[in-house]
Design goal:
single chain, about 230 residues, five-stranded mixed sheet, four-stranded antiparallel sheet
Length: about 230
Amino acid sequence: MRLAPRRTLAIAAGAAATALLVPVAPAVAGNPTSEQDTSAQFREDITVDGILEHLRALQAIADRNDDTRAAGSPGYVSSTDYIVDRLKAAGYKVTLDPFQFVYNADAAPPVLNVGSVDYSESAISMTFSPNGDATGPLRPVATTGDTTPGCEADDFAGFPAGSVALIPRGSCAFALKAQNAAAKGAVATVIYNNTTGPVNGTLGGVQTHGTPVVGIPRDLGLSLVGSAGQPT
């Protein structure tokens, strides 16, 4: 079995930006005599056409950047530039406050091959899954009668190191299942759903074990249980 989530994980610097801009042509003129005057000026200057102008501009930025303006992406940078430019044009002095955050996204879709069959379309890499390619025999974990599958170290008794762990969803966090598998020598973890639909999960934060983790639908997981030990 080969599993390759191909994720990127980076620390990036960002600047907070608002998606709603007040369409003021010049800066607020004069010196408002009270907060009430300032509020009235803003309310008067906000129009539906002005809001739609900015929404369309931000959507156009997403269209030019792989349909995303997510934090850490080029679309985010372009969105920030747009907002800063419009505010400066309206007479505002703009300050960006940098901060650090973890940015995690797929650099490419995950790859899931069992034997000669490609199941990549059914696989979703877990948010915060470590990068890497992993190859090894597929080994089911806690598949019969266990109400907390993969949640205890004992579930991995006899698990052969160098294998890919196949674990049903349920009863504890995805991260704990993956950590328990990695501690027993798993080179990767595949978690299949315990109900209908895909598994689009998160490991909750940056992982230290370094083994890729993906989720797959229940029917596929159950069928792969019968493929245990299948060579690559």
